[in-house]
Design goal:
The complex is a heterotrimer of chains A (179), B (248) and C (359). Chain A has 179 residues and is of the alpha/beta class. Helix content of chain A is 41%, strand content 21%. In chain A, helix 4 packs across helix 6 and helix 5 runs antiparallel to helix 6. The longest helix of chain A is centred in the last third of the chain and has 19 residues. Chain B has one domain: Thiamin diphosphate (ThDP)-binding fold, Pyr/PP domains (Rossmann fold), CATH 3.40.50.970. The chains are: A alpha/beta (179), B alpha/beta (248), C alpha/beta (359).
């Protein structure tokens, strides 16, 4: 099984880390992974996107033409990438910053006011963790256990309250993802 | 019979290939003697430039590298970093050091590389046949300044010691001349000090030799010295610019 | 050892240190900044030398000096910076010194842009610097391979006393994939590596050694001597051409109707297109040169199966490898090329469409 993701949004929304943590957790579960960011001047305050592939087989192209999953944190990301989602694929988007949504009816769409929810949990910064949770809840491409383990290692014992908040966001996301 | 002068072991038996009256041989000899006297024959290595002294790697009797034009300070940096237990010097002319290699010399000096640089300034490109150098004097005729160096067009000669003296890191900077026996004796003292500091790993040391090029200047060797004294020394004044070991 | 998720730029730097590289000289340029920054962080921890040079020109000449001392030394850059290094690379080849150069290619010509490209194939494989010389050129297609090539490059450089280039691109530099590293060489092993060059390199005269006078040099003023020198180097290149051809065969079979040839990043994208078309019952093979000099001409020729009616070359340039493929194909079947330039990277879908046109 191969799952191809694109995560896109404004620079600073943490889209690159969504892909990074998914890839890291996928690797920990023994899968092949690749993580390919957009880079350069466009990253400075502009739009950022990352292609992540998680697969049981060797990964051919790290560039994703037809994502199975698109996470769009702003409207331009929907305009740019939603048309290429594979039929039957998944669009996860942030209603706070995607006022026009998406018109496709051949894909599964999950939307939530992700900025509001993140703020409720404690900080807008955990928006990316919320997105990771939604992906896990909806697709189980990686397990919550692997994600928790990886995040705990990544934080390395620093600021346990921050780890707690991040895990809370992931769990909330899983709830949303499961619908 | 008592031997009062002989070839230092630090020079190979290969005969110098310089023109009659050229002072490269004198500069080589001073450096070789100083290395010998400091007992560094087994741990010294050098970098030869592009220019008349391009074959210097054949003349010094220890390991030598031949650098691309102007790059000797970068090559020496690589050598010193790779073999910190060795002592490294470069030998460069004015086109090599003050034109194509300006960046390399300024930054090696600015890093305070623990190397010695011996810079021979004769105000002209010798090997390529007498073209204008960055140190060619105002109004001086060369094959590429046939009407004399026009300072409105091409600027003034570069005084390298003064330029390097603006940097913080260099340890020792001195300009000497090779234009008379008395000055050669002074030059030897400066070379010895640079090699001694090099041996002690103190920092970047730089000696400029004011020299001649009878062939490309088109004058005989004796007159070339007189010409240099009259014309070069007023612009390139010998003297000590920097000596962190002893102050100035 | 467990796998680590790492950017290509950092993985190759780590692998180089593990391979015994203790000297690194470079100048910052995008998209290889993570490489120089990784070296700046890690070299001091292994008592190695990290030096940010004043220019690419200086950096490669520092490499020349350190390589002349027989030690494993590396520099890295991206396309415009590699152009600046070409002078020094020619000298390193002429003086027969072992050194490793990494090019994380970006779009050109000129300042170009900073996105992934393969526009330096000619420069790397056909010359770049002046005179008769060759670079051994390794072209990775994954982060793991990029890292593995660090130690391979040093081995080849030491074995043949010749500069070796790893020709990567911005995508390989920037992307993260799992990497498994080899165990780092110990200080004792590294000291042994240096000894293999003691007959020619710059080194002190130890007690008891015969006094030596080693010259690190590419100058031979006598034409007959230079001729002899170049012929000697070319005899070495003939050996390299015999021993060091490496390529990957992907989906090669007698059923192939199309044979693709692609290298580096481009080959990954072509593989995806081949996989998609396989689902539709189409049989397409791929030859991926792993070393692009020496080039696997015979492998290309052999891979042309009985049903192949088209050889298709895909590159992120204007067709710089095309002539090499044509030499391999030698007129047996038509050869086509399609590519993207300027740092625009083709997608699997685009390659798929191009291949579908052939049926």
């Amino acid at each position: 099984m191969t799952k191809e993701l694109i995560c896109a949004g404004f620079g600073g929304q943490g889209v690159l880390t969504i892909g990074r943590f998914l890839a890291q957790a996928g690797m920990a579960e023994g899968k092949n992974v690749s993580w390919l960011p957009s880079y350069g001047p466009e990253m400075r305050g502009g739009t950022a996107n990352v292609s992540t592939v998680i697969s049981d087989e060797a990964i051919a192209s790290p560039i994703v033409s037809y994502p199975d999953i698109l996470v769009a944190l702003n409207q331009p990301s929907i305009e740019k990438f939603a048309p290429s989602i594979r039929p039957g694929g998944i669009l996860i988007y942030n209603t706070n910053m995607c006022p026009h949504g998406c018109k496709r009816d051949d894909i599964d769409i999950i939307s939530a006011p992700m900025v509001d929810i993140a703020k409720e949990i404690g900080d807008q910064m955990v928006l990316n963790m919320l997105a990771i949770g939604i992906i896990i809840g909806k697709t189980e491409i990686v397990s919550y256990a692997a994600m928790e383990k990886d995040l705990t290692q990544y934080m390395g014992g620093r600021r346990p309250e921050l780890l707690e908040m991040n895990l809370k966001a992931i769990k909330k996301g899983i709830e949303i993802g499961k619908g | 019979m008592e031997i009062i002068a002989t070839r230092p072991e630090t020079l190979t038996k290969t005969p110098f290939t310089y023109c009659p009256g050229c002072l490269h041989g004198v500069a080589h000899r001073l450096i070789a003697e100083a290395i010998q006297e400091e007992g560094l024959i087994n741990s010294m290595c050098g970098v030869a430039p592009v220019g008349c002294s391009v074959f210097a790697y054949k003349f010094f009797n220890f390991d030598m590298a031949e650098a691309a034009h102007g790059r000797a300070p970068a090559v020496a940096t690589g050598m010193k970093r790779a073999r910190p237990e060795m002592h490294v010097f470069t030998y460069q002319g004015d086109g090599d050091l003050a034109a194509i290699g300006t960046a390399e010399i300024v930054h090696a000096a600015n890093r305070g590389e623990k190397i010695s640089v011996f810079f021979v300034n004769n105000a002209i490109y010798g090997m390529t046949g007498g073209q204008m150098a960055p140190t060619t004097l105002p109004d001086m005729k060369t094959t590429t300044s046939p009407y004399g160096r026009n300072t409105d067009d091409i600027g003034f000669p570069i005084r390298v010691c003064e330029l390097l003296d603006t940097l913080v890191a260099p340890y020792y900077i001195e300009r000497v001349s090779l234009l008379s026996p008395a000055e050669i004796i002074k030059a030897k003292k400066a070379v010895s000090k640079a090699i001694k500091y090099n041996k002690e790993g103190r920092g970047f040391t730089f000696i400029e030799f004011v020299s001649t090029c009878p062939t490309n200047w088109g004058v005989d060797p004796v007159k070339s010295r007189d010409w240099a004294k009259e014309n070069m020394l007023p612009f390139f004044k010998p003297g000590l610019f920097r000596d962190k070991g002893e102050g100035v | 050892m467990a796998k680590i998720l790492m950017k290509g730029n950092e993985a190759v730097a780590e692998a180089a240190i593990r391979a015994g590289c203790r000297l690194y000289f470079a100048y910052p340029i995008t998209p290889q900044s993570e490489l120089i920054e990784y070296m700046a962080r890690m070299m001091p921890k292994v008592n190695g030398t990290f030096l940010q040079a004043e220019s690419e020109v200086s950096a490669i000449n520092m490499v020349y000096g350190a390589a002349g001392c027989g030690k494993r030394v590396m520099t890295s850059s991206s396309s415009p910076g590699v152009s600046l290094k070409m002078e020094g690379i020619s000298y390193i080849a002429g003086a027969q010194l072992p050194a490793v150069i990494i090019n994380v290619q970006r779009g050109g010509p000129g300042l170009g842009d900073i996105q992934p490209a393969q526009g330096d194939y000619f420069q790397a494989t056909k010359g770049g610097g002046h005179g008769d010389y060759r670079l051994i050129v390794l072209a990775p297609a994954s982060v793991q391979e990029f890292a593995d090539m660090a130690s391979e490059a040093f081995e080849l450089a030491d074995k043949y006393r010749n500069p070796v280039m790893i020709l990567a691109d911005g995508m390989l530099g920037q992307m993260m994939e799992p990497v498994e590293f080899k165990a780092p060489k110990t200080d004792e092993e590294i000291a042994e590596l240096w000894k293999q060059h003691k007959d020619w390199c710059i080194q002190p005269n130890e007690d008891g050694d015969a006094k030596h006078h080693h010259e690190i040099n590419s100058l031979e003023i006598d034409p007959l001597m230079l001729e002899k020198h170049v012929n000697k180097i070319y005899a070495k290149y003939a050996e390299i051409e015999k021993n060091e051809i490496r390529y990957e065969e992907y989906n090669i079979s007698d059923d192939n109707e199309i044979l693709c040839v692609a290298w580096g990043t481009a080959s990954r994208i072509v593989k995806s297109a081949i996989n998609e078309l396989k689902k539709a019952g189409k049989s397409i093979g791929l030859i991926r040169p792993i070393n692009v000099w020496p080039y696997p001409y015979e492998a290309v020729a052999k891979a042309i199966g009985p049903k192949v009616k088209q050889v298709y070359v895909f590159e992120l340039n204007t067709g710089q490898m095309l002539d090499d493929v044509k030499i391999g194909v030698n007129g047996k079947v038509p050869v086509k090329f399609w590519g993207k330039v300027g740092g625009v990277v083709f997608t699997p879908a685009e390659i798929q469409a191009k291949l579908e046109e052939c049926f």
